[in-house]
């Protein structure tokens, strides 16, 4: 069976699995626990447009999670079927960000690429954050200013509470007159933490479409 689980979808599935584990530990009524487990499985299945029988079978153990060991076993069983982020070289990154004088992308291992919805890093020297996303079969990049916030907030991408910063991109609206329009959102300071919590790509993809003028 080929890999079929994107990172943000994996996060959705594991969130439902965690709900089942929490219910197992907090709810006494067996019928309620069972119904909730199948409800959670249904939500996990709906994270996909369609599933074949072997893929459905892979998700079924979600309803049988009773303890932390079961949860970890279920999580490990999904790993071989996760779609990794497309490997990208420093030379490719330089082509994506031609205007950047110096790039300091993170050094990632092959395992790191398994759990990325987007690749990102913050350059303190330029106070810019760079974001790379695979869209429509190719890798796209955008960059913008990033100002870390002294207070925790909700990330625009993953909707998780934590350390955030104001990310601003300037989009040219009139080439002739050099007019720009800024779009700002608070996003996670820690890219790894964001990738571990993101469960949908709507806001992230909208940002790329906005920058590309779609």
TrEMBL record:
<dbReference type="InterPro" id="IPR038344">
    <property type="entry name" value="EF-G_N_sf"/>
</dbReference>
<dbReference type="InterPro" id="IPR032330">
    <property type="entry name" value="EF-G-binding_C"/>
</dbReference>
<protein>
    <submittedName>
        <fullName>Fibronectin-binding protein</fullName>
    </submittedName>
</protein>
<dbReference type="InterPro" id="IPR010841">
    <property type="entry name" value="EF-G-binding_N"/>
</dbReference>
<dbReference type="Pfam" id="PF07299">
    <property type="entry name" value="EF-G-binding_N"/>
</dbReference>
<feature type="domain" description="Elongation factor G-binding protein C-terminal treble-clef zinc-finger">
    <location>
        <begin position="99"/>
        <end position="202"/>
    </location>
</feature>
<dbReference type="Pfam" id="PF16571">
    <property type="entry name" value="FBP_C"/>
</dbReference>
<feature type="domain" description="Elongation factor G-binding protein N-terminal">
    <location>
        <begin position="4"/>
        <end position="86"/>
    </location>
</feature>
